[in-house]
């Protein structure tokens, strides 16, 4: 009897049943990073990855900016130590990051009223912001996200303990901004709600409000006492200009809004895996800033203690040296320009050469790293399985993944998918 029990227990199934984690269900792959995994597993030489928003050069290769290479050499030559950074990171870097976003002339910056901390790139900045708001925001902790938004926003804020709701943003029928819907939803939101705004190059739609529309949004946010939280992951990628792309943030601050801001240097400096970012809050004065700083430290210390050194040193070397900064600005512009030229080529190939059914004007008019193509989930699935072309299931493509060598395979595959011929 006992031997029978032991025998049964020692079968692999019985062993599995005894595991502590036997009830953990398998989760779905990440909607964006999972695409890279599927792409890597594909052995076809024609494969194209348009999933993750990471810049690729004309040869489809990851691109290390020349300014970054030079900055890295400067950092290495200074033979820096490997001591821990303070909890809020490299002070010189955070000062320069804030200057980049808010502008050197920003009143709260000059007054010393902006609390800023280094973060584990943009995601970490959003998460610190979520946690800080979760703990200290004195009103209802409800955050409104644009529909649609970057797929990670909902889990970031939900895991931070905030209630996540949506406001209208994208109008399918015009493939443009649903400005009236956006305003109506923000007007209907309870006073003091938090509203997440993409500072520029909205992900995934590639559609930004105009300057005039930003002004209206700022007025509405003021009227309703909403709390604006900007996510700025693509400064420079929208128009090729660092200061143009900061228009919304700078306008809101000039209008007296106390904004929260998440910055990423992943895209504009190509520092993806170095995880360089910053989170900041505009406060009333230096005394309030000091109190906010102290609480940011209390939020961060149990999360990861203090941030990594290397990437912040690189970014800071660029931001603090006039010649390197100028070189970097030119490189940002050239990345943005290559993306714009791919938009032109793709639009021309689909409309003029292939006469692909449908309206493709949005490929040219959308802004930033992505194009929200309008391809359906079954079409994106067929494109991956039959043509080895990978993108997110919502039909978003990272324009930087296209180049003169692969654009024809991409366009003919899209044409076939749209015609149902794949
Ligand atoms: N905000 C937005 C809007 C965003 O698109 C990203 C990244 C981030 C923040 C965070 O990036 P980080 O690397 O933490 O600085 N988006 C691309 C990569 C990803 O999903 O992680 C993407 O959408 O492909």
Strand content of the residues, in percent? 5-15%
Our count of helices gives 18
Instruction: For the largest sheet, list the strands in their spatial order.
Output: 2-10-9-8-7-3-4
Q: What overall form do the CA principal axes indicate? A: globular
Q: Would you state the CATH class of the largest domain?
A: Alpha Beta
Low-confidence stretches: 1-7
Please summarize the sheet with the most strands.
7 strands, mixed
Structure notes:
With 422 residues, the chain is of the alpha/beta class. The chain folds into two domains: 31-63 and 337-419, Aspartate Aminotransferase, domain 1, CATH 3.90.1150; 84-320, Aspartate Aminotransferase, domain 2 (3-Layer(aba) Sandwich), CATH 3.40.640.10. Helix content is 47%, strand content 13%. The protein has helices spanning 2-9, 12-18, 33-41, 66-77, 91-102, 107-111, 121-136, 153-159, 179-188, 211-223, 242-245, 247-254, 286-304, 310-319, 322-353, 361-365, 377-387, 407-418, and strands spanning 48-49, 114-120, 142-147, 163-168, 170-171, 176-177, 194-198, 227-232, 260-264, 276-282, 370-372, 389-390, 396-398. The strands form four sheets. The chain has a seven-stranded mixed sheet, with helices on both faces. A two-stranded parallel ribbon has the order 1-12. It has a two-stranded antiparallel ribbon with strand order 5-6. Strand 5 and strand 6 form a beta hairpin. Helix 4 packs antiparallel against helix 15. 45% of the residues are buried. The model is unreliable at 1-7 (pLDDT under 50). Residues 32, 52-53, 121-123, 150, 152, 198, 203, 231, 233, 264, 266, 272, 277 line the site of ligand KET.
